[in-house]
Amino acid sequence: MTLNFKEYSSLNELDLSISEHIVQALQMALDEKGVASLVVSGGNSPRNFLSNLSEQDIDWSSVYVTLADERCVLDVHPDSNARMVKEHLIQNLAADINFVPLYIQGESQMNCQQRFINHRVLSDTYDVVILGMGLDGHTASIFPQAVERDQALNIDTMLNVLLTNPITVTPLRLTQTRKRLLNTKNLMLHMMGPEKRSVYEQAAKELNPEMPISYFIHQDIVPLSVYYSEAS
């Protein structure tokens, strides 16, 4: 495994730095092929750096963004990751970014998979994937107790998207699989607070299916850059 652990003294430093590195990677992709792809995680943690990103001056009209995972709720629901992205990223200079939702009400898992397989940009290797991590060691919506956990972690799966029941929380989720998320040029983990560092350090010791994030740490497919601040 190849790890690059970056520690910052404040949340502001953390979010400014990860925003800068995301923009650099996206700009490199834009220069090389004219389009770029970005996969972001949900929850509260990404909000500040997504807002920072929205103020960066790049050709957002050529950037395609989607989610690592999504709750199966409408995008007006307060727990919707799509809503969070729209409120914090798709504004300011990034108002014309191309957002591709993971969850569409009434769409089957098979149709969701095909929609991404057939997408002219998001079917290719991603340019940037930003992961988060829960205190239970989950990442995306690959949860320790989910029946679908091992399938989602299986590097040989044919699936790119999986409907999963986390068991410990509701509602059902759609998650991109480990195999699909590792198919990226830049893999980043954004986390904050000593509790999450403790979880991360435990996961970094060995592969452990009870800590799905360990399967993104212990792999040689793409280097992982960790962006961390003790402040939370």
Automatic annotation (TrEMBL):
Question: What SUPFAM superfamilies has UniProt attached to this entry?
Answer: NagB/RpiA/CoA transferase-like
By what name is this protein known? 6-phosphogluconolactonase
Repressor keyword on record: no
Domain Glucosamine/galactosamine-6-phosphate isomerase, chain residue ranges per copy: 13-216
Pfam families under this entry?
Glucosamine_iso
What keywords is this UniProt entry annotated with? Hydrolase
Instruction: Give the protein's function.
Output: Hydrolysis of 6-phosphogluconolactone to 6-phosphogluconate.
What species was this sequence derived from? Sessilibacter corallicola
Organism lineage reads as: Bacteria, Pseudomonadati, Pseudomonadota, Gammaproteobacteria, Cellvibrionales
Which Enzyme Commission number(s) are listed? 3.1.1.31
Q: Is the keyword Hydrolase assigned to this protein?
A: yes
Task: Tell me the NCBIfam families matching this sequence.
Answer: pgl (TIGR01198)
UniProt enzyme class: hydrolase
This protein's pathway reads: Carbohydrate degradation; pentose phosphate pathway; D-ribulose 5-phosphate from D-glucose 6-phosphate (oxidative stage): step 2/3
Show the catalytic activity. Answer: 6-phospho-D-glucono-1,5-lactone + H2O = 6-phospho-D-gluconate + H(+)
Determine the domain of life of the protein's source: Bacteria
Query: What protein family does this chain belong to?
Result: Belongs to the glucosamine/galactosamine-6-phosphate isomerase family. 6-phosphogluconolactonase subfamily.
